Amino acid sequence: MNEGRGWVWGVVAVIAVLAIGGWVYWAHQRALRETPPAVGIRAPVAATAPAPTHYPVPAAPAAAGSAAAPLPALHDDAAILSTLAQLPGGETLRALMRPRQLIQHIVATINALPGRTLGDGIVPVHRPRGGFLVDTRDGSTTISAANAARYAPYMDAIRAVPAHALVAWYVRLYPLFQQAYQDLGYPHGYFNDRLVVVIDNLLATPDRATPPTLIPGSHGTWNYADPALQGLSIGQRMLLRAGAGDEAAIKARLRAIRAQLTAHGPRHR
């Protein structure tokens, strides 16, 4: 993993989680449409198995007299991005997204976070501008606080869309996320369960008041000097790059989302 260039993939991944997470009490489950052609994304070999418990997305009755808009096709990125842009603050998030196999890449990114690697090709948003900055003092290298300016647009996107709006977007498009997860290689899996597993993994990232020490890796990359930190999952290693303030804000949002996702309790399978 390119640690030197790649901290923001942690923020990227969290944005993806926030973009599909929400309070499932308001869920409106819809029947899956025709199965689209399979896409060329495969599940990581080392991916963690789906959770043994099932967190269902319950159906909620539609408002009287309302007509639900047709569900976009899984491969129709333009239509999917249009639904995102219609949310309050949605343009902020839309501007960061890569308009190519968007749902499939969000699902693949989230699914990979508890593993060891995350391929650049599946990340659903654009890279941050500028280069990764470090500070070296007294022979010790750490992440520079100046990187916060590079990551500010991603943190702004996390905060921009209200939770209730994200909920409505999530539940409307959930059949697409479920189909993409099954196409990824989990025909009997349930994406909502996997999302809870991934959030738990991110929340288990160690809290640190000071930036971890870095050591040079291969090809101009950076690794953590502490083997225990370097041995964390790719999502956890990336989240550590955020800095104490942003990491705390991200975790607080994730905790709230998890509480809402699991508010009705699991069904054991």
Question: What class, by secondary structure content?
Answer: alpha+beta
Sheet with the most strands, sense and barrel status:
4 strands, antiparallel
Total strands: 6
What is the N-to-C order of secondary-structure elements (H for helix, E for strand)?
Answer: HHEHHHEEHHHEEHHHE
Structure annotation, total helices: 11
Lateral strand order in the biggest sheet: 2-3-4-5
N- to C-terminal separation?
A: 35 Å
What is the CA-atom radius of gyration, in angstroms? 19 Å
Q: Number of domains in the coordinates? A: 1
Topology:
Layout: H1 3-6, H2 8-20, E1 53-54, H3 77-85, H4 90-94, H5 102-112, E2 134-137, E3 140-143, H6 148-160, H7 163-184, H8 191-203, E4 213-216, E5 222-224, H9 227-230, H10 234-239, H11 244-261, E6 267-268
Feature tags:
269 residues; 4-stranded antiparallel sheet; 44% helix; 6 strands
Protein described:
The structure is a single chain. The chain is built from eleven helices and six strands. It is an alpha+beta fold. It has one domain. A four-stranded antiparallel β-sheet has the order 2-3-4-5. It has a two-stranded antiparallel ribbon with strand order 1-6. Helix 8 runs antiparallel to helix 11.
Question: How would you summarize this macromolecular structure in one to three sentences?
Answer:
The chain has 269 residues and is of the alpha+beta class. It has 11 helices and 6 strands.
